[in-house]
């Protein structure tokens, strides 16, 4: 074709392919400088290669010359203007320096334009522009013109006034159409945050100098806005790529529906609602999110939601919030509904500086912090949390049968545990009733002991969590509570006895826990247990039991085993046996009353009392020291009435099986107590003594070198007897006679 040399060179540098179906050209004057001209042509299969330009010295990309593939063009042009129609079928558009992926495949593209030229000013009217590909469908119209009052290259990239809409868009591909003028971290955030979703009727409005239209703050009078409704969106507002390895993920929102807006250099999600992925019991009814300046990507999220409190706990524990609150709620269970307000401030480039604020409002929920802490019933109040911890605000609940006030959280000024977890302390102050203590089955053997308790009393409790391990402290003066137990643990309701209960991990150990119970100056119980990782089973490592004011001083845990020390002016074994029977078997003798774990029983013990009452007999000035091995109890005893060694064996159910006694002396005096008269009366009537039970008498093997009966010296005593009731039960009803 007779083209000017400059045009030929340009075509060589910028390849063009296609079929010229028709061309008609007229001009007057030289071809390279015509005085007037007119061109009319149609080209099909047109492909014009894009021409990228190098970036600026500061790295900012420069828009290149666009390219096109698979186009059909019909053109009429004169020096003063013209018209053109463009249609692309299964082709592509390419915009180097504009998008990170410059080539945009299109299934269909149509444009109808007309332009006019006056001096150096060009005005292009787009009467129709329609685009459809796998990601979106849209139609637009508008006007582009060179910048008024400018000459040469300063006229470009020009002024655009465009209006239109995307009737359909794939939310997961939004990032692909964000221009390179938006920083890479903002584009990457949108790419990883919006995982799926659909947009409908996205209104598009662009007006202004194309060189400045995306500036922040925007030029006065300029517009750059994409706004439409989205649905079915899955949004990871904190994408995993922003988090450190091993950090708990923030749960994504799914089924999100609302309005998505890009306005100049900002992004907003307004009036949205959605669910929390993996937690179907929770719904966010109002979500506002946005980036105020895409050149400094800082994501702000405000959300309000409601759902089951159990779901809210699941969300907190599975997200970084669990670390913020020291994993205090990892084992918590709850029922009922709650509401949540949440604020997130997420600087994308420095996500470690993220800020979190939240508030959960309780409305009559039942909550249990750990499996072995009491239920907080009908809880009212609020729990506020942040990236630095949490606090309980004006909370009330029914605990242990009475009203209680709750407070606490993450104390300020206390150091973390070295893993970024701050200590947590909860405080409870309320009233506990004996009836409620009987229902605390997870605090065995407290429910059994509570059978001998009546009334109610005030208490204070502190539950701490250090390195995720609970520590419990309960204190009370027990005013208002009566203890129906034998001496020395008999207490009227109007007396004050200080009580202190502690439990928690043993410092400097792994998997070892302790609990300590102290009651006034009369009782001390303390154990250490080793808990296995698998299954959570525990084994007693050591323990100590002290009964009586004189037994407690200098009482400490032994190196191993369980030590017991009993020291009181009077110990009524019969009364204690009846009390224990009432506590652990409801007053009915039963094999179930046997201890479930003999490891809690003492392996070494000592006893000192002025009077030891056993059935209708009393031993005076009694001292004893002994051991236990399995079901065998051994003791060296010394009293006014006897001296020597006793071996006592229990059967598998905990009942008396055999008593072996080797005594240097044994004295059975005449009855002097009222109990003796009652015993004598019973004997005279041929009935057993009131407190005796034939089924409880063990087999006997007794030798006493010096035996005295009611003041008479009878010399050596040997007794060998078998309880026929027990023997027949063990041998299927057959009696075995003994001597």
Features:
rod-shaped, mainly beta, 739 residues, 9 helices, disordered C terminus
Question: Can you put this structure into words, describing what you see?
Answer:
- The chain is mainly beta.
- Among the domains are: 157 residues, no CATH class; 125 residues, no CATH class.
- The protein has a 36-stranded mixed β-sheet that branches.
- A hairpin with a 2-residue loop joins strand 12 and strand 13.
- The N and C termini lie far apart (138 Å).
- The C terminus is likely disordered.
Largest sheet: 36 strands, mixed
Can you tell me the residue ranges where pLDDT is under 50 for at least 5 consecutive residues?
587-596, 673-684, 686-692, 731-739
Strand content: over 45%
- Classify the secondary structure makeup into a structural class: mainly beta
Number of strands: 36
Q: Report, as a whole number of angstroms, the end-to-end distance.
A: 138 Å
Radius of gyration: 45 Å
Number of helices: 9
Query: Percent range for helical residues?
Result: under 10%
How would you describe the shape?
rod-shaped
- Summed over residues and divided by their number, the pLDDT gives a mean of 86
List the helices and strands and how they pair.
Layout: H1 5-13, E1 16-28, E2 36-48, E3 67-78, E4 81-94, E5 103-118, E6 121-132, E7 136-145, E8 159-170, H2 184-193, E9 194-209, E10 223-235, E11 253-263, E12 266-276, E13 279-291, E14 298-308, H3 309-318, H4 321-324, E15 333-335, E16 337-347, E17 355-368, E18 376-386, E19 389-399, E20 402-409, E21 424-433, H5 434-437, H6 446-449, E22 453-466, E23 469-476, E24 481-483, E25 499-505, E26 512-519, E27 523-531, E28 538-547, E29 561-572, H7 573-585, E30 604-614, E31 617-629, E32 632-638, E33 642-650, E34 656-668, H8 674-684, E35 699-709, E36 712-721, H9 724-730
